[in-house]
Write a structure and sequence with these properties.
The protein is an alpha+beta fold and 354 residues long. It is built from eleven helices and ten strands. The N and C termini lie far apart (113 Å). Bound molecules: zinc ion.
Length: 354
């Protein structure tokens, strides 16, 4: 009896080769080597023909079992490799979502605030509303009549030189310009009150104004003004002085007072400049107030009968006063801002202080 092939040895060799394979390509090559036409298993099968019937049946059964076992080992190894390769592929393509989480913010996000001029305007409105005034507004583009004519400043009047401005249109029927003061709103208010028959008028008028000034420490070509107008029966200069003093202490503080000095304006008669206690030296006298202890804030006076005539109010029945001053100047005085141009330069280091 010839020695048959070592079937358990073939299987052991195949198992070792299969175990060593690590990739799809390697397991494919191992499969050819252990089950292909030139494999030891195939050679052992070819030897079957030289055996007698019983030995052939015996070896055939062993070879069949051996081949089945090797095929099973191969399939198990293929699954294992496919799983490993897929896992590696998944790991490589997985999204790392932590890359997309926004960074944490160090503190609360700054929200900014109103500009100092807007804050000042709001504070002034609050004071006057508390005193019983309404708040009114009007257009920034005016006709020559509303800006000058109705305010007793006829063409060629020398006072126009104080309020030179930007003209938009010199054509007919009327010249249009950027208003030089908020006084035109007074004319609109009085006209409407006469038309609607609802005099008296108690109103303040804040707004933007324009003059052909070169900006310097105390002047801007675009600035903000607030005016007040009272038209009623029996209004006197004492009402004007009392209103100015009440406003001054309410806005600047109880130790800041006001005084009136004679002046000239075309639209009021008599007229006055009003001054308030110097906010820097508190009345002691300093360089800013030229040692007087007072700083000029605005102008005021009794409404000129010529202005009443231009809007159709009977000056025998009604009297009134008006006053006006710069909102920017107010902010400059209250916060001791040396140069008014800081208000329009938009330097965040300056603005965030208020
Ligand atoms: Zn002073």
């Amino acid at each position: 009896m010839t020695a048959g092939p070592d079937v358990p040895g073939l299987v052991a060799d195949a198992r070792a080769a299969i175990g060593a394979a690590a990739t799809t390509e390697e397991i494919r090559q191992v499969a050819v080597a252990v089950t292909g036409k030139k494999s030891p298993l195939a050679e052992a099968s070819r030897a079957l023909g030289s055996l007698d019937a019983e030995a052939r049946r015996e070896l055939g059964r062993h070879l069949h079992e051996a081949r089945a076992e090797v095929e099973a080992l191969l399939e198990a190894k293929r699954s294992e490799i496919r799983f490993d390769e897929l896992s590696a592929e998944l790991a490589a393509s997985r999204l790392d979502l932590t890359e997309y989480v926004p960074g944490s913010v160090a503190g609360p996000v700054a929200r900014g605030h109103l500009h100092l001029v807007s804050q000042t305007r709001d504070a002034l409105e609050d004071v006057f509303v508390g005193m019983g005034f309404d708040v009114a507004e009007g257009p920034e583009i005016e006709t020559d009549w509303y800006n000058f004519g109705a305010l007793n400043i006829p063409p060629a009047h020398p006072a126009r030189g104080m309020w030179d401005t930007f003209y938009l249109d010199l054509g007919e029927p009327e010249t249009t310009l950027l208003r030089t003061h908020t006084s035109p709103v007074q004319i609109h208010l009085m006209e409407r009150a006469v038309l609607d028959g609802n005099l008296p008028v108690h109103a303040v008028m804040p707004g933007r104004c324009y003059r052909r000034d070169t900006p310097d420490a105390r002047h801007l070509a675009v600035f903000h003004q607030i005016e007040g107008l009272v038209v009623d029966r029996g209004i006197t200069f004492a009402d004007l002085a009392g209103t100015i003093e009440t406003f001054t202490t309410a806005y600047f503080g109880p130790d800041i007072h006001s005084r009136l000095r004679p002046a000239y304006f075309p639209f009021t008669e008599p007229s006055a400049e009003f001054e308030v206690t110097c906010t820097i030296c508190r009345g002691e006298g300093c360089r800013t107030c030229s040692q007087t202890g007072w700083i000029e804030l605005g102008g005021c006076g009794m409404v000129d009968p010529a202005v009443f005539a231009s809007v159709g109010i009977d000056a025998d029945d009604w009297t009134g006063f008006a006053f006006g001053f710069g909102i920017d100047r107010c902010a400059q005085m209250r916060h001791q801002i040396a140069d008014m141009r800081a208000l329009i330069e938009n330097d965040i280091r300056f603005l965030r202080q208020f």
